[in-house]
Amino acid sequence: MSDGARLHELWASALSDAANTLKGLVGSSGWVRVSSSNGGNGSLHKKGNVFRAVIEIDEGTCPGVDEWRALFSSPELRKEWDVMTDKVQVLEVLDPATRVVKTDYALGWPANPRDAITISRTVHDASTIIDISTSLPRSPDEPAYLRPSPPYVRSHVHLQAWCVQLPTPTSSKTRITLFWQHDLRNAFTLSSSSPSTTLPILLPAIYSVACERATRAPLLQRWGPRSVIDAVSYDTGRAALRIDYTILPDEEHGEGNSGAGQREVELRISPVHAWEAQISTRAASEAVSNLPWTVNASRSGPGGEIINQDADRTVMRIVHPPVPANSASSLKVKLVIELGGGSKGTLRINGAPHAVSSARLAPRPVLEAGFALGVGADALSNISSSPGQVNGSGSVTSTPAPSTQSRAASITSTVPSGLATSTRTAAAQKSIQTLIRRSYTYFTALLQEPDIKWRPLLESRGVTVTQLDSIDPTLVVYRAEATFVGVGVWDLLGVLGCEPARVIWEKNIEDARLVEDVSELSELWKVGWKAAWPVNPRDAIVLKTSYKSPTAAHVFSFSTSDLNLFPLIPSAELPTIRTHVDLHGFAIEALHPQLRYLPCLSNPLLPTLLRGPVEDLVECLLLW
């Protein structure tokens, strides 16, 4: 099996697991209501680590199936309804219903920016639309563009599923349900936001975008087996969909070349707008590049398809002739379709008006080829047959599905190696976060002290050392500052973030050993200092935390000895003396593309008393 086949098999398995989990959650019981001040935006429940938000909206006009499909197939629109989203990009289109998406989250300082690589599939019938997303599992076969890269911390989406149930003859309400489990790597602990405050507002927001913006998004309906989709992107500002695709040369012996729809791409566009399309072709051979193509447009959908007549879309089909097998060249096509001027329902191709026929286009056979065939169909039928009702208290009642209920237990949080975070109580985790916040507040307060509060001690070879001028004689804090040219924030952070590297640039350090990965941002280290007569060797247990952004980074550590919070702390071994570090931290700031400012804060309780803290601070920065 090739690397690509193994990778796609792994992706299909992850998507199938997410769909099975959703199927189990839809009919399961045991949901606990989560109190939230959501202003009447539906109800929020929790089961284990999974949140479920539900809202019912009763309006005269509501978006139809095609509008919801267009919304989910254009992930770039997510910025319009999800305030945590900074950027969304489609990396790969696997079939008309399945895509690989990269999402960047902007959570605000001091939380690192997060990202996620997810595989999403949209399935639907006449009255129900389901969009299922889950993170791609890591694999040694994955391409480089799927790997994490700074400054983003890779988060894990266990499940994000939207279930939209349209009005029926017995109900005039649109019911939207969101199942959500996303491990944002402790992001919510660093801010006032939480799932209970962010999830309920997503439901009315996505409904509003579906009503107002979905008709501006063309829907890529299908493409033929001799067509390969290279890239798809949607510009929300221009309301422009760009599709890059390739028409493959015919096979030498003619197998697989015959049949309708072999070399075509089909889209659905809303008739309430005027549209303009630009189509260009290129190839290594001029003869192939100049092959003629045709565009057919029809006001009605293909025969046999169930369509909401009030929200019918214009079908636009681009048809290409065969590429000769002996041409040794494929045909590259770029299609850009966007909102244009003119009367609604009109279409222009490369600037020229194009007629839209009222006759129905010839139907195309359903292609057997596809990615992860059948995934999501069971969940769709389960939801369609179990619409559920919302009672006065806001809770949801639905038909139970005991055969798949046990799948809910398979959704678990990803925890780092070492002591699992789940073994700590919620109170212990909160206490750790309180310690970190307190130390970080102290650290940033010292950084913001005006220069007049710092008494100069020494300046040597570009390094300035000052001491905090405090009325408290017991508060002794040193600050060393230096500006570096030609190195980046991530160059400096790469060294500062690696505690064992201190052995190289801090001569008194003997070793540094990792005790525990506390979280994605924090680590517990045991740092040892050398002995020098008449001083015994010393060590310290420090909790080190790093906050990063593209132009700045803060790395700070402080001592801890609480065995209730950190049971893996080793005891001191004679003759080593355990010392206490009140604060030790670095702040890296980008002053200019070529300049980096690095203040270092320390305190006299560090075991730098062998030669004095001032000399050590100077030497540490000079060794950079």
From TrEMBL:
SUPFAM superfamilies: Bet v1-like. Residues 386-416 are annotated as: Disordered. Residues 28-199 form the START domain. It holds the Pfam family START. One of its GO terms (cellular component) is cytoplasm. InterPro entries: START-like_dom_sf, START_lipid-bd_dom, START_lipid_transfer. GO terms for molecular function: lipid binding. This is START domain-containing protein.
